[in-house]
């Protein structure tokens, strides 16, 4: 009797985790470079009874367990902004940035220039090239970034373009092992080294929008909500069943 | 359930986005206005199961973990310093900057402010001042009987005085630039002031060393693009709506729990 309630409970806990994930996706529907999360559940089998002298097989109970959240690394739509310091990564790759916690990798290419002339993220973390931060000089103007990520400028009134560095765009053998850090950045485990990204294109004057699909998330939301109610009904029925069993079985008829 | 609070951060973020968009639209025809945009990032993650944890003594590791995000935060509302389009006027003291730089303005309290709004006037002493009466640097005074003011691309101001056929040079505008223009702080009235984030102000001559050139008889329009703003407004409104749906759904799930105990 208890089992029905416990199995239902395992599903409810899993569903409440799933709505947390959906809520985070929806909250980040307009966060540049955000990659949506998805939940993955697995069955957890538990034998019903241990006694082997029953005839027939044991009924195996199957519980639900939340196994993992996986990241959807699909390309988000590119939004034209016309801002020369906005870049989007077209293809599989990440822009390397330096944070106080170490190197991080991001798809959010909305860059700024700080007071020292370095290219930084909105949070002020340095955007890296192969040789460290990219520094612009005071007289630099008309910044252009080519599809390979090379940043060239015009210094002063000169018309010759000067190269100031190349964005370090990296890729990973197993991107699913990247961990989300706050601030649209990913951190890599120590045993997975970044490799230079192949087949990527840097698009200047555009940012990659969040790859969260509003419609998909809304249908997940309805699904979770309805399932939750359904499971609650099962719990209610199991409880009613038990209640009536107790009442009817213990009912001593009047003599 | 975390979802309630996560969705609440989403609604707060979209509310801020609408506020930024509404200010852009309100300033669509403000001379020299530079549009802002709200930038968001995801908040901290709770790692319920860590990626890479060993799942057996044989060294199998978890390829993926359980990561629960806690919402969204606003990192900034940077100003986009792209060139606005130029509108021709008939006023000889309307000056537009084409390229990098700001006009330097002396405020009544003795500090400097910077602006792209070049709609200047003359005050009672013949000085070139802004619409609010603040002196444009370096204080240029025109002779009382001056006529036909000419400002060239290098910012040199020449006037013709009666009795002379050659124009007289009375002064030159200076432009100021910052390494990080987006780091300037807006104080209203089309003025920006320096901050440590913007870097030190660098004064220079127009049309020299990468500074922008001046265009007389023109004003720089706001760089607000109506279509972009309306598109962003729709996006923000729909995102707000979606977040509110998450709150409703979570609320219903909690309601389900409450009903169970009857």
Protein described:
The complex is a heterodimer of chains A (255) and B (262). Chain A is of the alpha+beta class and 255 residues long. Chain A has two domains: 2-73 and 212-249, no CATH class; 78-208, no CATH class. Chain A contains two helices and 19 strands. In chain A, the strands form six sheets. In chain A, strands 5, 6, 9, 10, 14, 15, 16 and 17 form an eight-stranded antiparallel β-sheet that branches. A three-stranded antiparallel β-sheet of chain A has the order 11-12-13, with no helix packed on it. The radius of gyration of chain A is 27 Å and the shape is elongated. The two termini of chain A are 31 Å apart. With 262 residues, chain B is an alpha+beta fold. Chain B folds into two domains: 3-28 and 39-76 and 229-260, no CATH class; 86-220, no CATH class. Chain B is built from two helices and 20 strands. Chain B has helices at residues 3-26, 226-260; strands at residues 39-42, 45-49, 66-69, 72-76, 86-88, 95-98, 102-106, 112-115, 121-122, 128-129, 135-136, 147-151, 156-160, 168-172, 175-177, 185-188, 191-193, 202-204, 213-216, 218-220. In chain B, the strands form eight sheets. In chain B, strands 7, 8, 11, 15 and 18 form a five-stranded antiparallel β-sheet that branches. In chain B, strands 12-13-14 form a three-stranded antiparallel β-sheet, with no helix packed on it. A two-stranded antiparallel ribbon of chain B has the order 1-4. In chain B, a hairpin with a 7-residue loop joins strand 13 and strand 14. In chain B, helix 1 runs antiparallel to helix 2 (226-260). Chains A and B meet through helix 1, strand 2, strand 7, strand 15 and helix 2 of A and helix 1, strand 1, strand 2, strand 3 and strand 4 of B.
Summarize it:
The complex is a heterodimer of chains A (255) and B (262). With 255 residues, chain A is of the alpha+beta class.
